[in-house]
Amino acid sequence: MAAAVKRFFDSDLWWSFTRSPVTVLSAIVALVCILGALFAPWIAPHNPFDLASLNLIDAFKPPAWEEEGVAEYVLGTDDQGRDVLSAIMYGARVSLIVGISATLFATFVGVSLGLLAGYAGGHVDSVLMRICDVQLTFPSILVALLVDGITRAALPREVHDQIALFVVIFAIGISEWPKFARTVRGSTLVERNKEYVQAARVIGVPSARIMVSHVLPNVVGPVLVVATLNLGLAILSEATLSFLGVGVPPTQPSLGTLIRIGNDFLFSGEWWITIFPGIALIAMVLSVNLLGDWLRDALNPKLR
Questions:
Q1: 13-69 tens-digit pLDDT
Q2: 52 domain-assigned
Q3: Does residue 285 sit within a domain?
């Protein structure tokens, strides 16, 4: 373990990371967002979703530095008296859970189908890639809206809130898998004609084992880049769905839900209810995207 850590700190990847101030800053911002969301139950000043602790008298309190602000609520409160800072921490948890889960689901589906298409070729490749082409002609958010609507219509109304989180994860994941499939398929087409794959075939290694044990490790690099960039898009897609009112239920509000709630009061002067969750969402997505851009350049041998 110690040797592996030492090799990592001596690698070109770590050297590239430390030589990019923007990447280091992005990593710090992303780490703060993740830790704040992960430890929200312990570090958040309040539990904004504990109905017993809410007081409508505290509603619409401005940030602490405003004239009528209260030090107890640093970023102010919303229309129900919930602490905006605490709501952002808890909301970021939901956004990250959906974003990471949807990205993992899209990665699994896309990598599996991309490996199969690239290695098998022929009609399998043609059918899978035509499905990708058709799906890529539609914006991902429209595909997610369609899948979400069909799923909700097919299931009983009384279970909607219980499975809403899983429906959103599935809807976003199933709308993003073609990106992974096309990336892996292109890399697999290159790898399948190399000598080590031909040698494995000659000695009778099963095709499934060749794909998983030999081809997959050599296409992981591009997959990591796509996954990192797709994480930011998945978080943004979840925020969009929640803003439109078809995402997670009100009992599990994400950053998109908080922005939608605050949008109703934006022009009446309570700007902090929507601005601060919006800033948190921008910081989270932008930091992840910048890390993805760095990783893409760092793993590109032509740029070394």
A1: 777 888 888 889 999 999 999 998 889 888 988 888 777 777 778 788 888 888 887
A2: no
A3: yes
Neighbours of 79 (CB within 10 A): 14
Amino acid identity for residue 256 in this structure: G
Distance CA 277, CA 69 (A): 18
Question: What is the Cα–Cα distance from 203 to 221, expressed in whole angstroms?
Answer: 27
Percent of the chain residues topping a pLDDT of 90: 16
Q: What's this model's pTM, rounded to 2 decimal places?
A: 0.89
Domain of 298, in residue numbers? 19-47+59-303
Contact 98, 253 (CB under 8 A): no
- Token pair, residue 172, equals 């976003």
Q: Which CATH number goes with the domain that contains 24?
A: 1.10.3720.10
- Nearest CA among 97, 87, 103, 41 for reference residue 257: 87
For the four alpha carbons of 140, 283, 93 and 71, in that order, the dihedral sign comes to negative
